[in-house]
Structure prediction request, 376 residues.
Amino acid sequence: MLKLLGHNSGRTCPCTISKIWLDIVIGIDVSTGVNGQINGIKTMLAQIIGALTVAQSGTQVSRVALYTFAGNDGNPSVNVIAYLGTFNSTDDAVNALFNIQSTSIVDVPLLKALTTAAGIFKRSDNRPNARDVLILLSSKGADCTASGSAPADLCRTASDMNENGVEIISVQLDLGAGQYFDGLGNPCYRLQNDGHQAHNIINAFCQINCFCTKGYEQYIPYDNTCQKMGECVQGVEDGAAWNFAKIGCQRQNAFLADELSTQKHAFLQVLAIKISGGGAKMIPYWIGLNDKSPSGVYSWDRGTDPSMPLLSGDYTIWPSSAPNDQNGQKQCIAVDQYNHGFNLAWINQPCNSFDFTPAYFCQKNTCDTDNYCATP
Prediction:
């Protein structure tokens, strides 16, 4: 089997900052707890927002809302500076940030901070294809884990926001001993005041702005669940020959899935069990690998785009050192059991036969900064 030198890897979520398209609400603690950090906070946020394309119309643009909070939940002081429909340009948002001032008010009304953000999203949420993001910068933490001490209504509000599609990026400012966020939204977006906040917030933006359309499941490696991949997969249980499975995927602007790593192979295994009804037995399935090219090099299907050759450094799970060429016939690859069902491997099969028509997976790119999706 001829192999070209090199190594293929999976598609990561792109991060073209100026093309981020999110609805972003920023809540800033202006209580005495910020300890004179307000200028640094404003500058850090201005760097982030200044790199976005803030506008009210267009496709790959972000909308930004802004509010401050201080006091306690019994006597909160909240100032909504801008709703999502307020700022018409990046400069408008940056100028408003620099106009924020700290206060002499003690304590932080976290519940009111959350309900204010929820109200802003509800008031202006008319972009169903844009993800909602709350950046909550606070000098006071909250523990919403099972053993935590945060008030139940605070944790319930955060949970309701998550269920309604709001991703919470919590940024811990100069917190005292025992002050932290835990269980308040996705732990992947729980950030520290470590000098890397701007980079980490931008990375969170790009991860949130990387998602799959309805019917597809996003590939997330089991060993790094905080770093989503820019790949979406849909399983099709009603089997077909490889040639027609390829056509079926192309009709969805997709291609037959690849397995470029142990993690991706494990991900597809789980989906194969799921589409078979959830039992322990995994059904066989086609992948995009085939040797149909005139050169005889095994290549990965890429739909209407040129195929991607299998390279010498790539992940493989052949049952032996090389695939069986089946007397020179063109072959396509399925994942199936061998060795009396104790192992899984890539098995050669005819590409166009009624005798072998397993399930298959279609794969396409995520909606992200490099691939705009008009519908969710």
User: Anything to note?
Assistant: The CA atoms of residues 221 and 263 lie 6 Å apart.
